[in-house]
Amino acid sequence: MEQLIKTLQNIAPVTGRVLLSLLFITAGYGKIAGYEGTAGYMEMMGVPGGLLPLVILLELGGGLLLLVGYQTRLVAFLLGGFTVIAGVLFHLIPSSGMEGMAAQNEMIHFWKNLAIAGGLGFVFTYGAGILSVDNRVKV
């Protein structure tokens, strides 16, 4: 049983990193594919569309770094902060002007963002795990 626990403890960090990273990689890629629409949506929500290249860099670049486990603590910190800010700007604030299912849907998205940030908090706290570039180069 101890060997199984040790194996799972080695696999769990990389599994978590992969699952979290896929969210950001696909979001970043989607923003490239729908650049004009995303910039317009950001503007409509009161966020300057000129920030979109930085958002793409953070999501796509940070997602890829998280995937391989390089500079993992820094990336987890940045992505976690970004996720909380995005949740507030794009879900919490808009939900205050809504009613019924629309408001409930936005609140679900807001709480999901907080849960993602919580997962990134674990990555920040405990690092990338042994199956990572950070472990290989001892960052």
TrEMBL record:
It is found in: Cell membrane. The keyword Manganese does not apply. It comes from the Bacteria. The keyword Acetylation does not apply. The chain crosses the membrane at residues 12-30, 50-68, 75-94, 114-133. InterPro entries: DoxX, DoxX-like_oxidoreductase. Pfam families: DoxX. It is a multi-pass membrane protein. GO terms for cellular component: plasma membrane. Keywords: Cell membrane, Membrane, Transmembrane, Transmembrane helix. Belongs to the DoxX family. This is DoxX family protein. It comes from Ruegeria marisrubri.
